[in-house]
Design brief:
It is built from three helices and four strands. With 80 residues, the protein is α+β, with helices and mostly antiparallel strands.
């Protein structure tokens, strides 16, 4: 499962993972394909360290490579 960690201005570390990332490669790819919006975005769930409230954000399909840490933190802040 590929995930990404970012830290916000409050020094809170967020772990972000794409929905369906826990499935096998082929199943995850198919689930992502089916869940991709018309705009080409997918749902990413970000969980803060030590806290229970997660945030769901819509990001480009290639978010792991194309979205900077700053942009990801900004999306999380907007989703809170």
């Amino acid at each position: 499962m590929t995930q990404r960690e970012v830290t916000d201005q409050d020094n809170l570390t967020w772990t972000c993972v794409q929905t369906y990332a826990g499935l096998s490669d082929q199943a995850a790819e198919k689930a992502t394909e089916l869940s991709e919006s018309e705009e080409g975005t997918v749902t990413v769930v970000c969980t803060p360290s030590g806290q229970a409230q997660t945030v769901r954000v819509e990001l480009p399909k290639d978010w792991l490579e194309s979205v900077s840490d700053e942009e990801l933190v900004q999306k999380i802040e907007q989703g809170r």
